[in-house]
Amino acid sequence: VLQSSADDPEYYLRRTYKGEHRTAGSIFFQWDCSPESKNLVVYGHNMSDGTMFAPIANYSRRPFAQEHKTILVCTEEKARRLEVFAVDVLDADSEGVVAGFDGIDGLRSFIDGKLRSCEVVLSEPKDLEQAWCFVTCSYQTDNSRTAVYAMEVE
Prior knowledge:
Shape: globular
Oligomer: single chain
Helix content: 10-25%
Largest sheet: 8 strands, mixed
């Protein structure tokens, strides 16, 4: 998973990790995320051939979300098991995904608000310290994005 800079936040949208042009782009963190961020936002394209983040768009359908609640993120250090707790469909022109919050109370307040408006809510996270949000384009409207919210579990 790559990360671009504030100067060019969509750098990897159409580039490989080497910086070469690629329509599918790369999977990348939102520019302002850090390991300490309360909401780790990860973007990827929804490719028509089913690659990249195409499965993420399927989470807006409750049966799919219920059957695929676990997301595994593997790094060199360890494998992280995440559990999906909510899915939102956003209009990218009017709503963004927020990475930074004023402490844990800010994150919990944000998630509480999201749970009231999300397309799919699978559970209310208990003891939420950090969330992950996987975002891809979807086609409910001209500029929709599907955002899948998950948290790390033991």
